[in-house]
Structures are given as structure tokens and as C-alpha cells.
Write a structure and sequence with these properties.
The structure is a single chain. The chain has 67 residues and is an all-alpha fold. The protein is built from two helices and no strands. α1 runs antiparallel to α2. The chain is elongated, with a radius of gyration of 15 Å. The two termini are 14 Å apart. 6% of the residues are buried.
Length: 67
Amino acid sequence: MISAALVKIISIILLFIVGIVLILGIGTLFKGGETSKKYSNKLMQLRVLLQFIAIIVLVSFAYFFKN
């Protein structure tokens, strides 16, 4: 069984990864130029996918560990 500490660590890691991708996407967007055209949209699509995964995992944790 997964311990409460491991659930917290996984949750924090997932949220941290989403935050990093968000910051990279916004930074690329404001940088402009060819880099923005090439990577900004892809980073934001990756952020949405990672947010979806994080939400599914967090809701699963909340459902299975509702102590």
C-alpha cells in the first residue's frame, strides 16, 4: 500500500512539473521570434496534458485515501 508521505511527494512533484512547463511556455511566448512560433504552442499543449494527468492522479489519491 502507498503511504501518505509518498502520496504527498508524488502530488508535489506533479504540481511542480506542471508549474515548470507553464513557466517555460510563458517565457517562450514572451521571448517572441522564431523560438516562440516553434515551441510556445507545444509547451502549452504539454502543460494541458500534464494538468490532466495531475488532476486524474490527485482525484484518484483523494478517492482511494479518504481518511
